[in-house]
Amino acid sequence: MKFSSIKFRLVLFCIVSMCVMQQDFAQTSKIDSLSRLISNEKKDSNRVTLLWQLAEQYLAFKPDTSLQLAQNALLLAQRIKFTEGESRSLAMLANSQYLLGDYPKALEHYMQKLKIEEKRSSPRNYASALNNIGLTYILLEEYKHALEYLYRADSIVDAVGGKIKEELKYSIEVNIGEAYYRMKTPDSAAAYFNNALKVAVASDDTASMGAAILGKANVLAQQNNTQESLGYYYDAYNYLKNGSDADILCEVSLGLAKAYDKLEKNDSAIYFAKMSYSLAEKSNFTSRLLDADLFLSGVYNKSRQFDLAFSHLKDAVQLKDSIKGHDKIKAAINLSLNEKIRQQEIAEQKIRDKKARSQQLQWSIIAVCIPILFLITLIISRIKIHSKIISFMGVLSLLLLFEFLTLLLHPVIADLTHHVPILELLIFVIIAALLVPGHHKLEHLLIAKLTKKHNEGEDIKLKTMKINYKKK
Questions:
Q1: 231, 257 Cβ separation under 8 angstroms
Q2: Which of 3, 267, 288, 448 could form a cystine bridge with 280, CB 3.0-4.6 A?
Q3: Which among 454, 464, 460, 450 has a CA at the least distance from the CA of 386?
Q4: How many Å apart are CA 174 and CA 94, to the nearest integer?
Q5: Is 339 exposed, middle or buried (0-12, 13-18, 19+ CB in 10 A)?
Q6: Is the whole model's pTM more than 0.85, yes or no?
């Protein structure tokens, strides 16, 4: 039995190690490829897309790098008014801050994404933003706010259905279940974990099945249905043991340990608690290590193994101090990153201000040039010059005037239609239908006025030449 247990652990370790190595190789290759593409890309919108994609690759193991890349993508997207890129970059920025433990900032950026998606016609993106906000409120222990946003997300995916529902339904149901579980409302929590499990089974997603079953096991444990919860913990463990999510495996293992402890089976409780401890230690999950240490200290104390109990208690005390120190370091890192973001925003604002000044200068030059061109046209109409030149100058002046009006109206119409191309085109067609006839009438009137004196002068000159010829 002991040999089988050791063999099982070795096999499990090898499988997980191979998966992690393959994942790391593929990830490094993807990062190198995206970095090369970014360095060669000239089009700004494509650079935004590549930047947030690169940020996504760094998210799991270097969230601070991911945050900086997402910020660069966001600033560029805002500069070129690339709405899709801005929305994606905000999501990536929020995800990075979420992993860094800066939940208030993550919530702020999820809210900004939500405002963008409210103006667009993408139910999938809108529901996803609501779901992320709900999850962040759970972590902030604001459960009523969390449920408000999660229910909205749930109603949207139910109404839309299809692929969007397939993609998001599971995550929303699990989050609602988690909110009720933390609120100690086990019946509601169990109902939503059951719904999530049905979705996971329909999509044949074993990892999702395991997570949903874990939720059900936690609820049963909360209701003191220990024997039943034990079965669910084993089911969850069997679905999750070959995966690479060590954090959730820590939770499952400790759940098994607690269930066995309630059933007064100390050996099994210690075995699974040590498994949780080992996984947490390997992945450097400080909070999971603390949970395992506290549990093992209590179990060893009950079985009168005081040396081991004291050893784990001492480790737990050190971990608590470490977590406090870690929280301070994390806060300092977040402060530093936020300051970098602020400096980037200041630099970006300077670029926008410079661009705005340049545009204002150009507008001013155009506004001054048009009347000057009219004035020049009026002056040359009194000079002895061919009438076709005067006509050309008059047409040019009017064309500039009407194009200037179109340029002035374009930003207003774009904001009014929320940059929907069909609506913009329709409005400009209506404006053109009103302006073009007026343009032609004004053109003929102006040219007639400008060339009248010139033609009169030509007629007088011709008559004088005829009179002189007759006299001769």
A1: no
A2: 288
A3: 454
A4: 20
A5: exposed
A6: no
